[in-house]
Every structure is written in C-alpha cells, then in structure tokens.
Amino acid sequence: MVKVNQNRSNPFPKKLSTTLIWLVFITYLVYLINSFGLEWTRFVDGLSYANTLIERMMPPNFSRWELLLDGLWESIEISVIASSLGIFLSLFFGLFAARNLMPIYVSAPVRVFIALCRSFHPIIIAILFVKSVGFGALAGILTLIVASIGFIAKLFAESIEEISSKQIEAIKSTGASFGSIIIFSVLPQVFSRFIGFSTYQFDSNLRNSTMIGIVGAGGLGGTLFSAFQRFDYDFVAAILITIVSVILFWEFLSNVIRRIFT
What we know:
This protein has helices at about 15-35, 40-55, 65-95, 105-120, 120-135, 135-160, 165-175, 180-210, 220-230, 235-260.
C-alpha cells in the first residue's frame, strides 16, 4: 500500500503579494459591474424578451431556400479563396518571422506586420475594405486574408522556433541551400501542426464570412442582416440552423483531414 506523504509542500502557497493582487482584481471587478449597471433584474427581463424572440423564430422557414443557398455558397467560396491565399502567404510570413531562421532585422518587421494584421477585428477590417474596394465578395476575401495572416503566420513562426536545431545543422553540413534546409529540415517538423492550424483557420474564416457580410462584404451575413431588419425571425432561424450545420460538417471533415495528413 502506497503511503501518501502528508508533509509535502503546498503547490499553491499563500503569499501576501498574491492575496493583494486577487483583492485588487476582485475590487475592480465589483466596481466595473456597478459602473455598467449590471443587475440581475435586467438579466431576468432579458430572458423574457429572449423567450418571445425564440417563439417568433419557430418553426424555421426554409421556403426561401434558394436565397439561403446563394448566400451560403458565396460564404463558402469566400472562405475557400481567402483561406487558400491567406494560408499560402502565412507560410512565407511565418518563415521570415522565425527568429531562429532569420536575423532580427528581417524577423522584427515581419512580426510587426503580423501583429498589425491581428490587431483589428474582422468587422473593422471589412468596413475598411468595403470603403476601399466597394461592396461584395472582394472585400470579404481581402478581410479574411488579413485575418488568416494574423493568426496562422504567428502560430507557424512560433512552431518553427520550437523545432530541433539538430536536423537543421545536419542539412547545413551537407552544403544544402537555404531552400533545401526549409524543405527537408524545417517543414517536416512543423507540417502536422501547420495542417491543424490551417483547418482551424478555414473553420474560423467560414464563421467570419457569415459575419462580415453584415457590413456589406458578401456572403450569408448580408442575407441574415436583411432578415433581421425585416423582423423575419423564422427565416433568421433557418439561416442560423444552416450556419450551425455547415460548421458541424466542417468539424467532422477537418478531423478526417487531420487523420490523413498527420
């Protein structure tokens, strides 16, 4: 019988500094709740309004399925194009941002650019592109390309920085070119992660493509926004069910892709 050591040290020792930090945080949190007027009665009243909204959404109305499918298909097309271009560009930006492969004067500016791509919400970027290139799918594609670079390039660069340097040194010792080092030493070590990042980014772009349409960047979001403006809540329910179904299907498909490539 294994005896448990009763005298082992506490993994979470109490410290005065830690206690003070928690007290300050809790005090500030209470202050924020009071300053925003967050009350339980408002939450309860909101539930009653939500119940009325759900009743108006039932049963879902799929009679305008052609309009729904047109918007859905445009969202999927936007996601495929933006994900393909964004992931392809992220591959290069990630390589140039990796500090174990590139000198600081190369990696630092690239990292700043990646951070800028990640700094703004896709809705804000979509508004800027809608104002620049006009309404439609092009604004949505450009928006999601920027979002893809901000996410994938950062994770890819961090994955490259965590690889073993032994394989790189072994390839270098043969006199191989920089391109050969990347292909035969770097990419094999990060390929499985890159596939995982890419499938997740397509999932994210698919969801975002239905959201940026609200500001005119194409896709199913425009159809959804129009239905809300017309108080056509049963059609809204049909659109939401369709979006959830597509996301669940892609979740299943992405698991299959990971098994194949990893």
